[in-house]
Amino acid sequence: MKKLIIVACFIFLAACQQNNEESLLRERQSDSDLKYVTDSDPVEKENLTTQQVARRLAKTAVEVPDVHDATAIVLGNYVAVGIDVDKDLDRSRVGVIKYSVAEALKHDPYGKQALVIADADGVERLRGVGQKISEGHPIEAMTDELSQIVARYMPEGPINERPQTNTNQESIPSEDHKQLDQIEKEQSKER
Questions:
Q1: pLDDT single digits (tens) 101-145
Q2: Tens of pLDDT along 48-103?
Q3: Which CATH number goes with the domain that contains 121?
Q4: Residue 74: which domain range?
Q5: Alpha carbon distance 73, 59 (integer Å)
Q6: Does some domain include residue 69?
Q7: How many domains is the chain partitioned into structurally?
Q8: Disordered: where is this region (predicted)?
Q9: Is residue 184 part of a domain?
Q10: Which CB contacts under 8 angstroms, 24+ apart, belong to 129-134?
């Protein structure tokens, strides 16, 4: 009987001790200055149709100076915006305008990764795709046409290629590398 009472007291004390640790842990967590953030740039996206998003992005592009007209195509996560600028502008000025439009679109949650096209042929092709979409043509055909348009203006090659980690090793000729290794060995022997 004595053993039973001792075991019961031991279990009771152990259970109370665990409860105190849990409350202490909760107290430490609530007093902590650390904040756990899951999304550091929360952006509320409205539920808009792709045509509404396209109109909104085209309107944003037209607000940039020197842009006379704009058209936008939204298919899934892909966005292409065609801008109409004065044909007499030189290429560098057109590049500045394209960059300004891209910057303006970055502030819109739907236009963050938009491709901006200022070529007259590309803009007309985008308008044609937009017209076909509004007429109800199959999306598969429009996706193919849009991919051809985008492929024409996007640079080829790996987009997210990581640089090599140790390029200095490769820039040293092999004879110099052997000489450096020899110097390292001599210096390590001196110590």
A1: 989 988 888 888 888 998 888 889 888 888 888 888 887 777 788
A2: 888 888 899 999 999 998 899 999 988 877 888 999 998 888 888 988 999 999 89
A3: 3.30.70.1350
A4: 50-153
A5: 13
A6: yes
A7: 1
A8: 155-191
A9: no
A10: 129/73, 130/54, 130/71, 130/72, 130/73, 133/51, 133/73, 134/51
Per DSSP, the residues of the chain read: -HHHHHHHHHHHHHHHHHHHHHHHHHHHHHH------S-SS--PPP---HHHHHHHHHHHHHTSTT--EEEEEEETTEEEEEEE--TTS-HHHHHHHHHHHHHHHHTSTTSTT-EEE--HHHHHHHHHHHHHHHHT--HHHHHHHHHHHHHHHSPPS-SSPPPPS-HHHHHS-HHHHHHHHHHHHHHHHH-
In-domain check, residue 191: no
- The answer to whether the predicted template modeling score (pTM) of the entire model surpasses 0.85 is no
Can you read off the two tokens belonging to residue 44? 């509320």
